[in-house]
Structures
1.
Amino acid sequence: MIRFYLNGQLQKLNQVDPNLSILDWLRTRKRLTGTKEGCASGDCGACTVVIGSPDPEQSGQLRYDSVNSCIALVGSLHGKHLVTVDALTQEPAHPVQKEMVECHGAQCGFCTPGIIMSLFALHTESAANGSVPDDDALLEALSGNLCRCTGYRPIIEAGRRACVQTWEPGTGSAVLSRSSALSGPDGAAPNNPAPGLSGIAWLQNPEMIADLLSVQNTAGELTDDHGYRYDAPATLDALRGLCRQFPKARLIAGGTDLSLEITQQLKDLDHLIGLSGIKELQEIHEDEDGIYLGAGVTYRAMFHKLEERWPHFGPMLERLGSRQIRNRGTVGGNIGNASPIGDMPPALIALGAELDLDSVDGTRRLRLEDFFHGYKQTDLQPHEFIRGTWIPNPAPDEKLFIYKVSKRIDDDISAVLGAFWLKRDGDTIKDCRLAFGGMAATPKRASGAEAALRGQPWNADTVAAAIAALELEFEPMTDVRGSAAYRLQVAGNLLRRAFLESTQDTTTTNQPLMVTDYA
Amino acid sequence: MRKLPPNIPRPTTTAKGLTGTQAFHDSAWKHVRGQARYIDDLPEPAELLHAAVGQSTHAHARITAMDLSEVWAYPGVVSVMTVEDVPGHTDIGPVFPGDPVLAGDVVEHVGQPLFAVAATSHRAARQAARLAKVSYEPLPAALTAEAALDQQLFVRPSHTQLRGDPDKALAEAPNRLQAQMHVGGQEHFYLEGQACLVEPTEDAGVFVHTSSQHPSEVQKLVAEVLDLPIHEVQVEVRRMGGGFGGKETQAAPLACISALLARRTGRPVKYRMARYDDMVQTGKRHDFFNTYDIGFDNEGVLRGADIMVAGRCGFSPDLSDAIVDRAMFHSDNAYSLGQARVVGHRCKTHTVSNTAFRGFGGPQGMMIIERAMDDIARHLGMDPLDVRKRNLYGPGRDVTHYGQIVEQHVLPDLIDTLEASSDYRQRRTEISRFNKENSILKRGLALTPVKFGISFTAKHLNQAGALVHVYTDGSIHLNHGGTEMGQGLYIKVAQVVAAAFQVDLDRVKVSATRTDKVPNTSPTAASSGTDLNGMAALDACEKIKQRLVEFAAETYGVSADSVRFENNQVNVGEQQFGWAEFVQQAYMARVSLSSNGFYSTPKIHYDRETGQGRPFLYYANGAACAEVVVDTLTGEYKTMRVDILHDVGQSLNPAVDIGQIEGGFVQGMGWLTTEELVYSDEGRLLSNGPATYKIPAVSDAPPDFRVALLPHSPNREATVFRSKAVGEPPLMLGMAVWSALRDAVSSVSDYRYSPPLDTPATPERVLQAVTATERWVAAQGEPSCKNA
């Protein structure tokens, strides 16, 4: 059984197909149709819901994150509070709803519920922090919501206006448009918030939170008529046991990639082991040598930790997926998925990151670059799982450059990602690691170019020699994201950009070098 | 007699929400609460089945065998059908034949539906549809417009428009340039995918809920495949989650297949396309291969032009005849071509049949002449804006290449105003300085106009009907043939009705578009929704008002002209009655309070034999000034600022109109920049989902975005309250971004070289343009302005 709350009301599920997405559960089992399917691949945001989880940083509170419900599976709801647009029907309306109406932010209206929920999450988060989001935060919150009608200007305006208002919800009953009563398929009561509680009080209902905290310490499981299973272990030990017992079961963390097998390839996965309930996997440990990210740490959670060590992570992580994806996607999932273009692995390889693989037999550590064997092939053994990754701290003479190139700036998969770690002694390159995504079947180091740099003066001629080496050692493919020729030309130019950027530090003419810097 | 409803008088105030006010979208509150129902949100009838189709995996092939046994055997499957099982017509081509509802012996594109499945769940139907075993004998496939031109494969005959003697003008012109370009297609990416729900009726007919811009055509085609008279089929469209032309003809196949499955099973059938299926199976904007040969004087003014536009139509005609016509009509955009020949080809390819998309070929035609304007400027060392201004239509140079006279010259002043308000000249200077000082990033600026012809070029479509009822409580029910896809048509026409009676807008309720309320309607397309349906609704209102005036004059012994509708009242001479009170009086006196209305557009004609006529009632105009910044290392770019001034005549709803302009601009920008349709060498669409097909996201909206409506510009033609159509024209404002990208790249040559830049101008194509420019500079033996 899994146990969670939907719009303030307790739900217990047992006999449910573990391949069911939250979206399909809402729309087909609960007949709550406010949440829309636009793509079923986590790219458009029409299905955005908000999920509350006990927040380790604020004990006793739930933190609410926007999530693509189309690629989040029901099993992942164990111990969570799911909030959907169907809950926001009371008078007075939530400020984001009022402003979306008044700014004419909805035209066809199909993306609107998702936009409402993304803005609702932002509003809730900033209200909890007592802050007002700036435009960057607003755009980031909406980065995973496509709108085809408005051109976004009125939506941005609505977000700006709403986020300076407080939500003072009424206690009245829901406003039902006459043509759209909210009832379950069997005439069940509408899924409205718990009576007597509203607004923040309803989102932070102490009884619900106490229940969720206790649920979090228990394992959840789903089964269905086909014998399909979803296990949601609560501890590392339980996970080790499950991995030993069911070596063919698929591990699922954020599910932002694995779920596509279900929703796009229409596969039925017969056994899933959900990792999001295991606290140890979400821990971050820091010491003077480096930082250890548990495999379940989300992009959102690692963002500041990495950016403060290696500033180039900031702009890259801001462009990795969308806000909804960054709320769910994990470093372990990104590595385990072994995509040739995953944006984190090249950066981590450039840093010399190491990986822990765990099992009942113990933990083994290996260099991340040794983990990838071939296209989607890794060193992970059937009963193992990724425990975490260790990333060294920067020394004063080290610098990391990460450049992502994609067709669209936000929420797009890279054509090329270049990550360059340089250790300099004055003008000489003492050591370096250059890693690329999108240039080969795996994230890959450019050993020839590295050799052309090591021990050489850091100047335009050396860079040119390294670029020439790059062109010899890579044979990238032509695909929907770019041609082989483009990838090669860009890979070299990214190295050139790193050179320009590093030498600009010491000159007075600081030209902007990236369109994302120019504003 | 039943009791009349209580007449609660309203205070005498100026009626609220009339035309010209910024009324909210009629569904706005439902949108934000998730309570607006789209097809898939409707309560599901008992015994509902879900449809899916099996798709061709070949671009062109003969089917030698099709084994559906595993499809039949899949759990949940209730019925499977092929074209053999269709009782009526099997060809559902909207204008010309060529679109089989399910494939026969030959398939002509990857994704073509081969058979249909009905199953107890959406997922089961889709999973089952993948289990067919189909054997193909591959046939040669033409996949591009150029391949079709080489092989002379056309879906419809080519057409020529000729004015004067272009060959002579070109030969005698002081300057002459030739060029060619590819203009990419575009996926509609309406957020609500194609969907319909069909329920059998008691007379072997069907009731169809569809997400379609053209309910009357859905009705006709469903009747034809079922072999029924049209009156056995009712079609309702409450709203669409976006259309953009993609639901003009492309919704009908779903309705036909669902209706056929409903007939076979006796059960209701829903067919909702998953995004992947929608992108693979339904038509898109035509990509074009265009060429120009232009002659111009030393001031940059065109003397003559020979232009070819060739659209990739896909395997069937669909609407391509009219789409390529519109590309031809707009290959001049806002400029007098002088002596001109324009030839349009309708290329047949073994790809999905391309279809209507906002602009309907117009944008693709305009691109070739906008490219020419920039090329002339670089050739002569002039600012592109000066070249554009000199070539605009104006008094004395007002005849288009198809013989229509441009009567209202809006653009010269509009452009001057925008040039000043956008600080074009000062920013041009600043940008040139920036580009000299910066080696990696380059900024670009462009100001481009749009002149877009308003009317369907298929003359018979320029008609509309409406139905207006006034009830005894003074509330008004409005129905018309136009469909709501988010563009605000319902609220605008409701405002027209409120204005006609001078009552508050909340008295007026617009109901779902239905074929049994208003018959034989035209698609909501060609930007004509408000022009046509607004006038039809106004006609219905005027008929009811006429009866009320006659009743008042007779009853109170006053002259007809002393009866006035104002301030939620009816004033009869010196007497004043509240609106509802007066309506009740009329009812008691047995005055009909219901009327239909009708409108047909006057003045328009076009002779295909001569290629001359007046296809458009008027032109809509606008201009955009865009500034971009380009990274010459990667080709990445960002649109930094956009200023738009657009002409909507006398606006019916400024907020709705601005929404159309902003949204159209961003959609046009997406078409020309990041939205790339990529096909494999076998004709398979590779950019088949939002992970690979990138429409603009929130951060692509220009951070500085200034949009204004041209003030004091009533339409010279007698349109509804002198407004102008606004749906399509703003899309073409996005051309300013493309031109600004070229401008930025051209700066590498100090604006002497005009780099080719096919569209979409992805970062990859922009980098290619940078490289081409650097090579040109190197060939001149001079240092580039980019010294990286």
2.
Amino acid sequence: MTERTIDVDYVARVEGEGACHVTIRDGAVDDVQLRIFEPPRFFEALLRGRRYDEAPDITARICGICPVAYQMSACHAVERSLGLTLDGPLRDLRRLLYCGEWIESHALHVYLLHLPDFLGYPDAMALAKERPAAVRRGLELKKAGNAILRTLGGREIHPINVRVGGFYRVPTLEEAATLRPVVEGALALAEETFLFASTLDFPKIEFDYEFVALTHPDEYPMNEGTVTSSTGLQLPAERFEEAFEEVQVPYSNALQVVRKGRGSYLTGPLARYALNRERLTPRARALATEAGLPDVVRNPYQAIVVRSLEMVFACEEALRILDDYRPPEVPYQTPPHPPAEGSWAAITEAPRGMLFHRYRLDAHGTIQEARIVAPTTQNQKRIEDDLRTVVARSLDQDDRHLADACEKAIRNHDPCISCATHFLDLTVDRGER
Amino acid sequence: MHEEALLRDLHRKVLEVAAAQAATRVRRISLWVGALAHLTEEQLRARWVETFAGTLAEGAQLDIEHSLDPEDPRADKIVLTKMDIDLRHVEGSS
């Protein structure tokens, strides 16, 4: 026996979080299972026993790309227990913070995860080598979104300046003025991105989606609105669980959310756009018309176009808020009464789609139970339905090409699963001996 | 939060290296953990035994060097640095 020491120097990678199992029988797709291995993280359990005002900071740690969404849904839910509704500059600042998150998250998804698929590159690193200007444009946009997050949130990832009732500190007029040229530059880049994305070559495919998003009578939804479905459902955010339920499937660690009695649905940019197009800014609407983007986009590959359009909107909305900004006298509103015992819920629009939070508080404002329903779990079932059709159209291809087609179909919808599925482990059971 | 995926990747790489060397056993595995890797030694050790159970690396000693330098270019990474393996002695080999 000989003993030897091997120098390996291998950097471990986070990948293989997603797998897809396809069953084909008699030349037709029998089943598609999208398997997510990310183990449970127990955030809902972690929140039990914590004070109501700790929820925004704790839940912000759930996602490094959309921490603002978690903070906003948590704030709005617990503020209902306090009888608190934000208005004026504080409400606007929250919207501005959300604009920052939409810009940085959409830029990441569009340029680093999705665009390489349409230009024939395996990933953003390969794209950067041959088309550095495109990736630079994406990074500039991301930087602008991050600048908003840093100014309002105190830092770019997992902001620390948000609190129940508002902020710990609000920007000075000078700080707001410093942001303006950054966002103005981002708007030009976002328009360029949108016009470029509109010219991409998309697979010809459309789905009869049930779109679900918040709608608001006066604005494109971010922090507030009514849960609305393209099939006619309308209900207040706090009654979300009456119409939607989480189900567990044996092959995946991630829960799936379905509309009760109906099945899968889609939340996120395509749904927001379909249900709120008229509340985009006039410039964003004009761009959409100019590019020939239909009022309802049912081709999931065109999500890259809608995401780009939402970047244009978010930049314009950020500029409007910055131009109107007058620092409030105090950085947060004082609630009219202590937290009331009961169950309090809210939904806000994360870049990926609706994010539901519900907290059951006792008479002292201690969290007894928490429930968080992320957009990723809401779209999971719908992604499987998309994959069924995509696989059916690619049955004659070998497993490597099939895996490629599945990865692309998944990247249409979600940056988190997209990141993990750049290395999708596809198994195909063709029923052959 | 990604310890499961990282361990799976390390598991794959360790067994790949072992197979490439025609190892009969993996005795020791050395890891370098960056200061910003968001993974503690405790987390790694907690899952280590079951990750390698039933493989050539079952019972292998785990050495962890935890870097405290956030400026290190690989501060957010975990690096599999070395492996000590047993090789079957072949007649005529040195």
